[in-house]
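Hi R.,

Here's the chain you asked about this morning:
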Amino acid sequence: MASLYEQIRNTRCLVVLTDASGLILHSLGDDDFIEKAQRVALQPGVSWDERSKGTNAIGTALIENRALEVCGSEHYFRANAFLTCSATPIRAPQGETIGALDVSGDYRGHQSHTLALVKMTAQTIENHLSFEAYPGAIEMRFHTRAEFIGTLCEGLALLDPQGRVLSANRSAEFQLGLPLQRLIGMAFEDIFDRRFMQALAHPARTVDLLTHHGVRVVAMIAAPNRSGSNGSRQLRQAQRPARESAVKVAQRCLADLHAGDEGVSRVVATVRKVIDHDLPILIQGETGTGKEWLARAIHEESSRRGGPFVAVNCSAIPESLIESELFGYENGAFTGARREGCTGHLRAANGGTLFLDEIGDMPLALQARLLRVLQDRVVVPLGGGEPVNVDFQLVCATHRPLDRLISEGGFRQDLYYRLAGLTVALPPLRQRSDSLAIAEGMLRELGGGRLSLSCEAQSAIRSYGWPGNLRQLSNTLRTAIALATPGQSIELEHLPPDLRAIAQPCAPVIEVPAAPKQDSAPASLRHLERAAIDRAIADCGGNMAAAARQLGIGRATLYRKLQGRA
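And the predicted structure, written out as tokens:
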């Protein structure tokens, strides 16, 4: 409470803590406002449940079991109309509501970020309650994006030595798509695709996990050796280098994004023309088409490549926390979480590139704040503080039709004009002519360089529709590498059933006959060349581009040699 109060000091506000019934247990605030609050009995020892006080943030939040604000005349009693109150329930590790946290102040001085501060403080309290309830538990911190581990957005689950969930925070519920009451008691293997002891093998290191619902997360799992107030200090220190390494990604240049596809080639050529003109770039395309790859390549080829690349997925952060993650907050706001405060992604991107993925999912209220930052290039952290100038290249991406969102009132038109300095669209994988070459390149990157794709596997990859695009292709190849025998080919049996169902049988391999002894040397070479070409075409199922690559010649050269036979 004291830390939260430090963020609202001298703003004519009061921090209030209640029990589960709405009875005020403790309050902390500015002296002049405490006197005013006491006139309406907003003080310790008084119940603010709905039966006693009508509609108010404390009582209504406890009844509806959710965070909310009640502003001015929305209060049931006219005497309380001078208040704006922001409250959220506080729950115990097993999920039962044990109280509420509230900030009440003069409605004329209401701050839009107050509810977000209250929510974050409540989650910090809940995390500490879980640590106290299960002091020897195994901690699992995770998120769908590695860069959010160690922030207020991370999911936190406490596990017993057998891997069963003892408790989980609200962000964990959000990331996994499972309510707390269902999570508690679930075995690790009932949630994720690998065994608990396997995931625990490297404590405090990141591990990729896939839920049985298809959600991929990056996790850090460790059993901290707690003693008193030291809590998870050792775990946090161990996490830092792991987190830093987790967000390092292989550098890509624009040329790496395609292997001859004309559509992507045009996108790359267009982007190159504007890459250092400080124009905002909007990338459109289906999920998994490589929008973040393109954004990273833009950064790596720009004059800002020496600066940071900060990626933010607007759909992966709970709405209650996204404002604080973007804009940051002042030091001392959240005990045990970030005592040093939080810089925020907008300031962290200064001098580099800010990538806002899934921008179409950004809440409307936050769109207005982002628009102001883009206009003024100034960020004001939550909880006050001095404005900070920022300078970054902005790249945004979305799979949603922003024009339709604008017409439906879900996206600000003025923000759209700020984002769309240059708009490019990445084609889905099913429309690309280089799908097989992309698959072979991924195979090398994923560590399967000694593996090759059999003719039938190539046929399946070329023919499949790939609704998940590049992301689905990458996951498919990861699984195939694990199933295949090292040094051998990836066969059809190593691919998912839906790919096996559409694979076409390959033409039989053409045996190369021995060269006739009476042939002259030039004739023998021509004979061997023709046989090699026939074998390559057969191996590649008639795919001329793949056959040319196998032979180490250009496609045009291959066609010229075939035409020379006539």
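Residues 225-250, 333-338, 514-523 have pLDDT under 50 and may be disordered.

Let me know if you need anything else.
M.
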